[in-house]
Fold each of these.
Amino acid sequence: MKEFEYIGHLHIHSTFSDGTSTVHEIARDAMKAGLDFLCITDHNTMGGMEKGMEGWQDGVLVLFGTELNMAKNHYLAFGLRKTVPQDEENPQNVIDDVNAGGGFGYLAHPVEKGNPLFKKGRFFAWDDWDVTGFTGIEIWNFGSLWRYAYNSRLEAFFWLLFNSYRAARFPDPDGLKVWDSLSRQRPVVAFAGSDAHAFHLRLGPFKFCVFPYEFLFRTLNTHILLHEKLSADLAEAREQVFSSLKSGHFFIGSDYLGKTKGFRFSALNDDGEEAVMGGEISYSPATVLHIAAPSSGRRLIRVIKNGQVVHESGQQVLAFKVLKPGTFRVEVYRRPLLGRPVPWIYSNPIYIR
Ligand SMILES: [Zn+2]
Ligand SMILES: [Zn+2]
């Protein structure tokens, strides 16, 4: 099946909330980083869209979502034409309002932890796990991971100078566990975001930008796959991007470690039915998963079934025979000559019933 791949970034704050750059500046940074689209998600506002900023800027498609709630239970909503009221104490109301408004959404950084070094230890996790009706969860959030990676400011500054990606190189295993357990019950889309704010830190007389937008746009990206080219018409292009995000027809690629473009994961059964990421097919005795990793570098492919690793391979292309139904997803790691493999790609699942 011919597919067109587009690279975007989803969880971004601009000066319409607590980010430090304007939408125009952010779009320019995305163009420099080689992105095709952006979803700006300011806190409790879609101000950029209300000001008519939706559309192509510097060749990058700029779309707007919003991040609802402040003290806890942050919910990233997309596909809305206007924002809905927040309700931290009863986030089910927020999920329902987003769905009623024609949108869909993800639980943002649901397993975030605090660190006394930053924000006085405050954190913004999800605390109501009885909610239903959400589309997915954020399994990899650059900003959260950075805030709880280090034990002292000195250590944080040291790694900021010498390897600023280090803090975010492994997604929180608690988030992956939650995702695996939810996606055994029903389809749950996973995505990653940087939570880009490009905030500034002071160190004595010096003030510097901790994670510039352009840097973050080269890290945890969303690679959507479309059956047709992205339309030049705004309403059609918006629909194409949002329907991919809603159906999980995409993968998460850490482009910082090497370009992830070209990764593919699909399943084919005896009846000739094919499922792509986010899709579902019925099981037959000759169902096979087809996986293609990007060609560059040393890699490790892991096939995960119902949250458990069932196969590992260093090959670039892999055909894996499915023995029983289940929820299948793929992780690809970069394998350095020394040290542990580092996460590079997370696919969305294929559900074999
Ligand atoms: Zn948040
Ligand atoms: Zn955020």
Amino acid sequence: MESVYLDHNATTALDSQVLEAMLPWMHTQSGNPTSRHSYGRASRDAVEHARTQVADACGAYPSQVVFTASGTEANNFAVKGLALAKAHTLGGIELNSGLQILSSAIEHPCVSRPALAMQSLGFMPRAIAVNQHGLVDLVKLQEQLVKSTALVSAMLANNETGVIQDLAKIAELARAHGAFVHTDAVQALGKISLNFADLNVHAMTISSHKIHGPQGAAALILDKRIDIQPLLHGGGQEKGLRSGTENVAAIIGFGLACELAVKRLKDFASHTATLRDQFEQGLKVLDVTIFGSQANRLPNTSFFAIHSIEGETLVMALDRKGYAVASGSACSSDSTEPSHVLLAMGVDADTARGAVRVSFGPHNTTEQVAEFLKVLKTEIARLRQLTAIAA
Ligand SMILES: Cc1ncc(COP(=O)(O)O)c(C=O)c1O
């Protein structure tokens, strides 16, 4: 039995056109982009073409694109690099002990953990509260900004709830207090229109494998006027900002995936929104809470909890019936702790433990959703009966 994949926020299958474009670069085209010979030059040209495709997909200039190996790396680079750069412009870390790094309470761990790690250098990481809809509390942010702040990092769209932040407003507040602004747009790319210039941030993270590109390529879109130090030192690739031989095939795949994502954006949004609405309509007859449904959300994402059933248990049961869904953030860890995103939204721990995420993709169909709803109802009834027997 082939499983129905309903976990597109975790990762996506490689697009066949993208695979075609990558294949020669993994096999016959073997040049290192740094080499001066024809092989090297061909690889360099291909990487630069991909840089233009990536830039075009998110309203940036090619010169602002720094390729990395993952969204995780780009987020680490942004958080550590921007915080240090700000301290540097203010006269150095020694003079600026206690500078804040503010990140929203719902960030992916690859933002919140590097922020915490900066404590050892004298920075003060602080979480920005969100309200019950999963939106950054702008009043609280403004209050927190009274203290000297090196960086504000807030994700554009949340991987669990799909809730979309008013980033331009967050950036305006942060800039007014002299802080750098970073956004993790990994979940936004390919799902909503994305424009680096309009968001008015200093740096923005995107990742290839969420848009049917390969794993192993991502980018930090960066305001290059900032004097930022790299995480990786070495041969000086990416204008000295990210040393290491470029993953040429993956970067080429990322470039094409970006171009295709923009072309398909409208269709993706309307198709997945139709499926999501059909799904949530069907959920209504069950005893469920849908998280973030009052806010502007990604079109493809539904995050909900079935009362009195563990999310983990339901995910396993659905997997056995041929449906791949997530019980929270599959890309963070295999921890069974309740979602930090839901706790930050004020959801109680018991309800949060029941959370299940469904994230639709372009190849899902209304028939699959209808069938999935039937299976979901049966599994919920079966699990409830088991719980009742055990009680
Ligand atoms: C919002 C968000 N940021 C960052 C990441 C990490 O990106 P990558 O898997 O490319 O390291 C993910 C998921 O994996 C994500 O959902």
Amino acid sequence: MNIYAPRTTEMHFVLSRVLNAPTQLQSLPAFAEVDAELMQQVLEEAGKFVGEVIAPLNRDGDEIGAQWKDGAVTMPPGFKAAYQAFWQAGWPALASSPEDGGQGLPAVLEVMLYEMLSAANHGWTMAPGILHGAYECVKHHGSEELKALYLHKLATGEWLSTMCLTEPHAGSDLGLARTKAVPMPDGRYAVSGTKIFISSGDHDLTDNIVHLVLARLPDAPPGPKGLSLFLVPKFYPDGSRSRVHCDRIEEKMGLHGSPTCVMRFDEAVSHIVGEPGKGLNAMFIMMNAARLHVALQGIGLLDAAWQKADAYAQERRQMRAPGRGKSSAEADLIAEHPAMRRILDTQRAWIDAGRVLAYRTAIELDHIKYSPNAGSQADAQRWCALVTPVMKSIFTHQAFHGGSDCLQVFGGHGYVREWGVEQIVRDARVAMIYEGTNEIQAIDLLVRKVLPDGGTGLNALLDSLPTDTPAAQQRQQRLRAVTQDIAKATLRDAALPYRVADDYLRAVGLVLMDWAWLRIQASLTDEMTDCTTRWRAPAAALQHWILPEFDMRCAIMDAQCQAA
Ligand SMILES: Cc1cc2nc3c(=O)[nH]c(=O)nc-3n(C[C@H](O)[C@H](O)[C@H](O)COP(=O)(O)OP(=O)(O)OC[C@H]3O[C@@H](n4cnc5c(N)ncnc54)[C@H](O)[C@@H]3O)c2cc1C
């Protein structure tokens, strides 16, 4: 069984050559001192830590899994020691502010770290996966008292956090949440209710766990506007235990290294975070950060599956591939068979474009935070709002479906456990569901973000993506036209945008993939000796096997608009 190995040179190529990130980030006063060399050093060290400490725990995480007994969760062997090493080395604090105990480095380095972590060990990575979002949430919405108590611990990762939204009857529709918060005379609140599917609701990785919980005040209106956000720790600062209980963990298809907990809040004494009735608003920072992280899970898991499949295909021999001479020593390798080559090159095209888009999104996040220029802040806001749901959806979809294609490269050897690729397929499936299902992402893009301004924001995003080829220009034109057609057809059939939202999201995603690959190709130089096999083959796969989906999606949307 081969273990995932971070390929930091390729990641750094995307960061520095394709996106020119060091120069771009240095233009922000906050990162004036962060040069290409420093970024490369951090990346190399992160790759070493992930490869040596986190990746080897993946199999035990799956086979032994997290265990629940008498209300407490024990994590799989090695997980706790690895987490302690992780936070003590400062990894969770990479992008946190120095005044809170962080390192103040660009968000893109954190994003690259989490891509590697997810690829190496999705289950383990779930625990710190939402930590930075929780830190940002408390930093922006917490009272001074809360910040004094919790911010440093969250910034450094000494304590981990949860996001408690889902209830048995309230999944995609959080407005149905019933967990209640009753004001106490001292200004705190007693929170009661049951939350389900809570990742890392209990564990033994850290001494304390900080729960961020959506709940409803007694006089709150029904629906999402009646939700407020509360913070309740497992242990209060005086060491006493809160009335938060982990009643069980779920048996599930994959992701066994991450405990998915049923959490009972039994008049748990809590602090409000932000204003009453603005809970979803306060949670928004955390949810958006989590969506980007889930997109990275997709990219990382697909890379892990591809690495395994590629290595296997370079060893396994079956029949001579068509078009290869008898004398060629490689003619019978699985990797030489056109059907298998197609699978491998196609996944590579998704992974490489995924990196360009995810790293660019992280750079835009820093522009939102640190740019002194209001115009570039607004452009960055637009990029993140429109591109984040697209990435969450297309890369989680590809991790599962492309991961399954990678399993196919092994034949029967992929279906049995030996090579570990079946674990990736099982683990990856959930990423299409949590953090807002992929259907909800599509509705978020088309119905909440594109149609309300008549497509103006989307058109501005497209204007910002230079198109170097006539085919790319035509696709962009077609996307603009189909946006207008949907807007008009929606006046006749209000359900239409909900029916075609997924087609629309895929079409936007394919235009973004095309842009990402145009940027990669423009960055290749003749000295890159492995250009042909490493970069040109996936570039061709994009044209042959991926982009044709764009016309199919548009044809579906055209037919729906005409029928409306
Ligand atoms: C392993 C795991 C970890 C999780 N971790 C957390 C966590 O840490 N914190 C937390 O709060 N939650 C967590 N969740 C919950 C997760 O976010 C929810 O499962 C998800 O939001 C979907 O809710 P649901 O399962 O109730 O499905 P439902 O909302 O009942 O949806 C069922 C189906 O209907 C579709 N659907 C629903 N509404 C619409 C609509 N308006 N338009 C179109 N289609 C729709 C959905 O896309 C889905 O396909 C986790 C779940 C899992 C499985």
Amino acid sequence: MTSFLPDSIEKVIDEFSRLPGIGPKSAQRLAMHLLHSPEMRVDALASAVAGMKKGLRFCEKCFNISNGELCNFCADPLRQQELICVVEDILDVIALERTGQFKGLYHVLHGVLSPVDGIGPEQIKAGDLKSRIEEMLSGGVTAASMEIIVATNPSLEGETTALYLTKLLKPLGVRVTRIGRGLPAGGDLDYADEVTLTRALQGRLEYI
Ligand SMILES: [Zn+2]
């Protein structure tokens, strides 16, 4: 296709159109917006994007995104150490924090089990969760004082993962609960509003 725009602009349009939810038309509009923006704003955007991943890593304990060995939650002594909420990804942590109701720690799986896509337990941070709990138990924490809330999405993959984790963790003697109903089936946790999410968190049920 013949391009009517200089290469430098085409490059920007091409990069924008690779982003989720951005079609070719939106990519063009964003590029035009930048073209008409003051150079200072464009530089600020470029350096924010370029610097975003520098110095970032995963928390050694919960695999949340972090600047140091431990994320802000794991490093906070005021959070309930024996209450661990297991989520699919980092956006779910943000969604749960928005409710202001959860005072425990997290464990980010970075995915869910999906046999169709070839994603098994080794591809998510499930084994790491088991080792984390085992380490806590050998460090003097009693199993009876622990609760693991499985807050994977109410989708087929989310439910499959929740069942898998229950089977994995129950033998350790800890309480495993599932985030309550009320979340739209098949929906994403991070799309739920604060009230729905708070209700789901309060209405959690133990797996038997
Ligand atoms: Zn952490």
